[in-house]
Design a protein that fits this description.
The chain has about 475 residues and is of the alpha/beta class. Helix content is about 50%, strand content about 5%. The chain contains 23 helices and five strands. It has helices spanning about 20-25, 40, 50-65, 80-90, 105-120, 140-150, 160-165, 195-205, 210-215, 220-225, 230-235, 240-250, 255-280, 300-310, 315-325, 330-345, 350-360, 365-375, 390-395, 400-405, 425-430, 445-460, 465-475; strands spanning about 5-10, 30-35, 75, 90-100, 125. The chain has a five-stranded parallel beta sheet, with helices on both faces. The mean pLDDT is about 95.
């Protein structure tokens, strides 16, 4: 008896799941499979917070199947080992999955599995994920296709029929049981399709009214932004589900402007993943190769202080500490952290990229690496963004409440001093009993020197044929975004 296998990757949901819907329609006995692959979890950009979120997603999926007397098969092994076992035990007819815009390691694994499927006569049916399309050479027609995908009917999965197709739990031998799950942590958003649906409902039904006023503010964004990104990154929600929920809500809402702004962000998300899909070398290489000659700093201490939130720059440190503690930070402050590490401290973007990947609960490789390089200035085609941490603090945390929350050493300070504690005299530091480090680099000279250094280097590149190729390959026609 041959079976079909649905391989869950970054698509941890039962709703709007095209591979699952296809597998159910095929009519063969069915196994739903998730594999904790040690070679992937051990990569330097993964962290326990990601594993815990995935484990919570899997618990949610299992709970949805319990009323039907069915369960997923969850293994801890390399995917090739699991497939070989299932093929020997049952004979696999078709492997169903979404395509993954992932890392060099996941691409290498998929290429090896493609070869395995060919040798063993297994058909592998892959589906594009969200609005990202494999095999593109440019962006002609991409936006039109994205809107078509978002507006298309969702892939419906009939639960009763799914249960009828699935093998009963007593038949699912598992020689690769997963390790014990990590304990929950209430400081982080909980994983799972149901949690994602709850965040989506609260967003379209009310929280979106605070979007424009909250998006740039590190404290207000924690409730005034959608907070859907981890559920999109790990596939608890599809981009289409979010898009269509907004389309329904806007008809009965006065928040049309906020909805349109968020839809732009949703499309922008897939735009960056598409960029990485077409040029995944960005994981390891400068998008513009001339930056191999850039004078990156080799000093370890400034990087260590940046990673631990002890730079002596209150807004930088508050953002890093809050990110480490909760896995969340709004977009503007993420950009500031990258800018500070790569431009002000002069650290090669790869090292901050790995640290931030470990911290972001919503880590999505296809967004992460293009964004890091854009903020670091190594694409050579985007406007240089060098964020002044003092200005960012004064603009978006003027009372210093966010800083005092995450940098308790500064709680006694009020007014502008909370943003510039280095302005205190030695006597004032003693009076405040201030136990906070001096700036890792002097303010504001370090910022002006960084700006001059980066501009001088980029000016030498001019707009060469490499930059022109990047623009032609990644710019959406009719848009200025690359």
């Amino acid at each position: 008896m041959a079976v079909d296998v649905v391989w869950f990757k970054r698509d941890l949901r039962l709703r709007d799941h095209a591979p699952l819907a296809e597998a159910v329609a095929q009519g063969r006995p069915l196994i739903l499979l998730y594999v904790h692959e040690p070679s992937i979890w051990d990569l330097p950009d993964h962290a326990p917070r990601h594993r815990r979120f995935v484990e919570e997603c899997l618990v949610d999926l299992q709970q949805q199947l319990v009323p039907h007397g069915r369960s997923m098969l969850v293994c801890e092994a390399e995917m090739a080992e699991v497939l070989a076992f299932l093929h020997q035990r049952w004979g696999i007819h078709t492997l169903h999955s979404h395509r993954e815009t992932g890392l060099a390691d996941t691409y290498a694994r998929d290429r090896a599995l493609t070869a395995w499927c060919q040798v063993n006569g297994v058909r592998w049916s892959e589906h594009d994920r969200d609005g990202v399309q494999r095999g593109r050479r440019d962006r002609q027609g991409w936006m039109e296709q994205w809107h078509y995908t978002m507006q298309a009917p969702k892939a419906h999965v009939d639960r009763a029929l799914l249960a009828a197709r699935m093998l009963p739990p007593e038949q699912l031998d598992n020689p690769f049981p997963p390790q014990d799950p990590l304990p929950p942590d209430e400081a982080f958003q909980a994983g799972g399709e149901h949690a994602g649906q709850q965040w989506l409902r609260s967003w379209v039904e009310g929280r979106i009214s605070r979007y424009a006023a909250s998006i740039s503010k590190p404290a207000a964004s924690r409730s005034g932004c959608s907070r859907l990104s981890p559920y999109l990154a790990w596939g608890c929600l599809s981009a289409r589900q979010v898009y269509q929920a907004q389309e329904r809500a806007v008809l009965r809402s006065a928040e049309g402007r906020n909805f349109r702004a968020f839809t732009d962000r949703l499309r922008w998300r897939d735009h960056f993943i598409q960029k990485f899909e077409m040029e995944d070398r960005m994981e390891h290489e400068h998008l513009h190769p001339a930056f191999e000659a850039y004078p990156w700093s080799a000093e370890e201490e400034p990087l260590r202080r940046w990673e631990t939130g002890t730079t002596g720059y209150p807004m930088v440190d508050a953002c890093m500490r809050s990110l480490i503690a909760t896995g969340y930070l709004n977009f503007r402050m993420r950009a500031m952290l990258v800018s500070f590490a790569t431009q002000v401290l002069g650290v090669h973007w790869k090292r901050p990229a790995l640290h931030l990947a470990q911290q972001f609960l919503d880590y999505e490789p296809g967004i992460h690496y293009p964004q890091v390089q854009m903020q670091a200035g190594t694409t050579a085609i985007h406007t240089l963004r060098l964020y002044d941490p003092v200005k960012q603090g004064l603009d978006h945390d003027p009372e210093g409440s966010f800083i005092r929350t995450w940098v308790p050493e500064l709680r006694a300070l009020r007014g502008p001093l909370v943003h510039t504690p280095w302005a205190l005299t030695p006597l004032e530091r003693m009076a405040y009993r201030l136990d906070y480090p001096e700036p890792v680099v002097p303010y504001p000279t370090a910022l002006s020197e960084a700006r001059d250094r980066v501009y001088a280097f980029r000016k030498g590149l001019a707009f060469d044929h490499t930059a022109r190729r990047i623009v032609q390959r990644h710019t959406i026609p009719g848009s200025r975004r690359t």
